[in-house]
Design goal:
This protein is of the alpha+beta class. 66% of the residues lie in helices and 16% in strands. The chain has two domains: 342 residues, Up-down Bundle (Outer membrane efflux proteins (OEP)), CATH 1.20.1600; 78 residues, Outer membrane efflux proteins (OEP) (Single Sheet), CATH 2.20.200. It has a four-stranded antiparallel beta sheet with strand order 1-2-3-4, with no helix packed on it.
Length: 435
């Protein structure tokens, strides 16, 4: 009497949470994430900022041209007396002046600082591109992990749903035995208690499943209420070779590439600091126009216009060894960057070996648990038949049922752990986006 209403409720739950919803494949999820994930979009903007800054002008190669213009007007009462006896008196005398100056300044030589700065801008642009690629790879790994976590939770729901079915069958058997007098009311009540426990576990699993789907929606940069279904299995690549992964990681790992660019930037900083030992040669030219008009004074009008050109040289002969100290600090910073790159390589190889070991163990566990599930399923069928015949107790049947559920859960977890390890290996070797 309790079986059909509960199964109907479960059907409604699944209908609202998966069966009638469009299938979202992993590739579709990754495509959405690449387009809509906020962290990836921010990284792309940072990359564009670095590209925009990578110009000849920002490195100091181009001249600056400025325009200065002005107009002044004044009204004065003027009284002027001269030694020759002449005097001039003007009330409300207007004085007007106009000036325009166009000026060009250009640094011709700066001790190769501009070339070092241009190279540093290029390195900053490449580093921003690498950071964007690293964030994209990390988000790809995260989306993959969350996607297959949803698949895992979905498979666990199916296991728990099967457990509810088995508990319902057990109630039917217990009630039948009680009716004909070969069972006890205690067995019936215990079977109902176990059924309620299975229902509660199933409902809790539904909540976990729903939360995982919301997490994926957030990573895809879309509304949390969007409903979708996922695939029903967790495929694992069983052919990942450690030596091949290590070789690929040496060439493509994001962390190693980033460390290499940071070292190159540190070397360019040394070059910039050394440029202070050279003179700075500048060139300047301007065109000026000046005109004034006055109602009082020696000159009624005055106008000047013309060109000016010049070359300047500036060189610091002694600065208290400050430049020398800056060069030494820059060299020490470059040494640190070199050490960090070596450390990155050692850490990468250690992480690859550890992850690959976890990957191989998870595959072996999956094989073992697959055998265990087959045996536990056979035991479950045997136990149900023996319970019908009265050869085992209700508690013994429940114990076998629990072991069957646990074996299925371990198999699901082993497949999921193997997939996570596979994803980590591909992430560390920067091959995740290629798979």
């Amino acid at each position: 009497m309790m079986k059909k209403p509960f199964l109907t409720a479960l059907f409604l739950i699944f209908a609202n949470s998966g069966f009638a919803q469009p299938l979202l494949t992993l590739q579709q999820a990754l495509h959405l994430g690449a387009q809509q994930n906020y962290e990836i979009r921010i990284a792309k903007t940072d990359e564009r900022i670095a590209d925009t800054r990578n110009t000849l002008g920002n490195a100091g190669f181009l001249p600056t041209v400025s325009l200065v213009a002005g107009m002044n007007q004044s009204i004065n009462n003027t009284r002027q007396s001269f030694v020759n006896g002449l005097s001039i008196e003007r009330d409300n005398a207007e004085n007007t002046s106009h000036n325009v100056i166009v000026e060009l300044n250009w640094t011709l030589f700066q001790g190769f600082r501009r070339f070092a700065r241009l190279q540093q801008n290029e390195l900053d642009s490449r580093l921003a591109s690498l950071n964007r690629e690293g964030i994209s790879e990390a988000i790809t790994a995260l989306i993959t992990g969350v996607y297959y976590d949803i698949v895992r939770q979905q498979q666990t729901i199916q296991v728990l749903n099967d457990a509810v079915e088995l508990s319902n069958d057990r109630i039917s058997l217990a009630e039948g035995k009680f009716t004909i007098g070969t069972g006890s009311k205690l067995d019936v009540n215990q079977a109902r208690i176990d059924l309620n426990n299975d229902r509660a576990a199933l409902l809790r699993q539904q909540v976990i499943f729903h939360e995982a789907k919301i997490t994926l929606n957030r990573l895809l940069g879309r509304d949390a209420h969007i409903q979708y279904a996922v695939q029903d299995s967790i495929p694992v690549n069983r052919a990942l070779d450690l030596e091949e992964l290590q070789q690929t990681a040496l060439e493509k790992n994001i962390g190693l590439q980033r460390a290499g660019l940071s070292l190159a930037k540190a070397n360019q900083l040394i070059r910039q600091e050394k440029s202070s030992r050279y003179p700075v040669v500048t060139f300047n030219a301007d065109y000026s126009y000046f005109r004034s008009q006055s109602d009082a004074g020696f000159l009624q009008t005055n106008r000047n216009r013309g060109y000016t050109v010049g070359i300047g040289l500036n060189m610091t002969l002694f600065d208290g060894f400050n430049n020398h100290n800056r060069i030494q600090v820059a060299k020490l910073q470059a040494t640190n960057q070199d050490l960090l790159m070596q450390k990155e390589k050692v850490d990468l190889f250690a992480e690859l070996q550890s992850t690959h070991k976890r990957y191989r163990n998870s595959l072996m566990l999956a094989d073992i648990e697959s055998t265990s599930v087959a045996l536990a399923r056979e035991n479950m069928n045997i136990a149900l038949e023996r319970y019908r015949l009265g050869s085992i107790t209700s508690l013994e049947l429940r114990d076998i049922q629990n072991k069957f559920i646990q074996a299925q859960a371990r198999l699901i977890s082993a497949h999921y752990e193997a997939k996570l390890a596979e994803t980590d290996l591909l992430l560390q070797s920067n091959e995740l986006s290629d798979k």
